[in-house]
Every structure is written in C-alpha cells, then in structure tokens.
TrEMBL record:
This is ATP-binding cassette domain-containing protein. The keyword Ribonucleoprotein does not apply. It holds the Pfam family ABC_tran. Keywords: ATP-binding, Nucleotide-binding, Transport. One of its GO terms (molecular function) is ATP hydrolysis activity. The keyword ATP-binding applies.
Amino acid sequence: MKHAVQLIDVSKVYKSGSNEWVALRDVNLNVEEGEFIALVGPSGSGKTTMLNIIGLMDSPTEGHVILEGKDVTYLSEKEKSEFRNKYIGYVFQSYNLISFLTVYQNVELPLIISGISKKEREKIVEEVLNLVPGIYELRNKKPTQLSGGQQQRVAIARALVTKPKLILADEPTANLDVNTGKAIVDLFKKIKDEMGITIVMATHDLEMLKNCDRIVYIRDGKIERIEDKL
C-alpha cells in the first residue's frame, strides 16, 4: 500500500533568545493511504506541531516530510501553499468559520480561492452539503445560529470541498459533548470508508478512538508506541 504521509527523523526545535524548546524529537511515522490515524497525548506533547509539519504550516528543524510520495520538506512557501490547496483539508478545534458568511458561503470559499467557476462551484458545494449529514437544510444560516456540532460539520464540509487526499483534524471534538463528538468521529470514518481519504486526527480524548485504524501515542515530542485499532 502507498504511503500518504512519511515523517523521517523529524525534529522541531523552537528558539526564543537563548532559550530552546524541543517540540518533536526524531519522529518516524508512516501513514498509509486511506488510514484513519489518531495522535494521542497530553497538552504540549507535540501533537499539534506534528500536524502543522504534516500540513506544511511549519517546517522541521531536521528530517524529511514526504507527502503523496513527494519530498515536500524544502518547498518554497508558494509551492507549499499550492500543495496544501490541492491535497490537504483542515478541521480545527475552534471551527474557524467566517461569522458573516452563510454555511453555503463558508463551504464554497476554498473553491473561490482556487479559481473554480461559479457553475462548477455550485455543483461541488451541493454534493458536499448532501454528503455531510444535517447541514444541507442549514445552508442559508450563519455560524452563530448553529450548535457546536453543526459548526464542526460545516467545517468538515469545507475541508472536503476541494476533494483533498488528506484531512488533518486538530482536537476536532474538544469543544463538543461526548455524543456529538462521537458523531463527528463517526463522520470521519464514513469519509474514510466512502471516499478513501486519509485522516490524521490529534486528540487527548480516549473516547474518540473507536473508529481509528491505529493510535500513535506521543509524549515529550517522541512517539512512545503505536497501537492497532482497539
């Protein structure tokens, strides 16, 4: 099976004046295409740093990042942006929806940025709104009119609209109650199963692991162990 993500001897050191903070230490990880992986660890363990490096939002101090078989470690900022727009979708803990746009407009926005024609945008957004349960009928509402779970579903739809190969989710259930959080993780499994999209999710909530293929435990910037599905 083809690797969607490879981290090879990745370390990340942040410097502030004479102080250094090691966020990741010699991390090696392979994620196969179509896998649903959970990164688990306490706050400050390195989960978000790892996601940011995989998502080309940050660069490793040492090591290599391979995405879709391409070494992306030393791409220019412009090349990284183009790669992200083409291959990667993001889902955040805080939803990051634009409050003055409707649900439809929030989902459509990445397609506008990518220069997709209005006719094609309408077709794609319609498909995605129907794919993600419970948001089609909300398409004309603003984010402030929605519950947390509804907002997160809209955020997932927005991540899907560019048809990414990889979705990165950073604590996507942290602001939700347990049942709503489980529904979001069930939705990720549906996306993985039906669309073959690779998903890497950072979480500290062990309740959210039932649909994951593998669990990567991180502490102090290092991978402690990797377990197959519970």
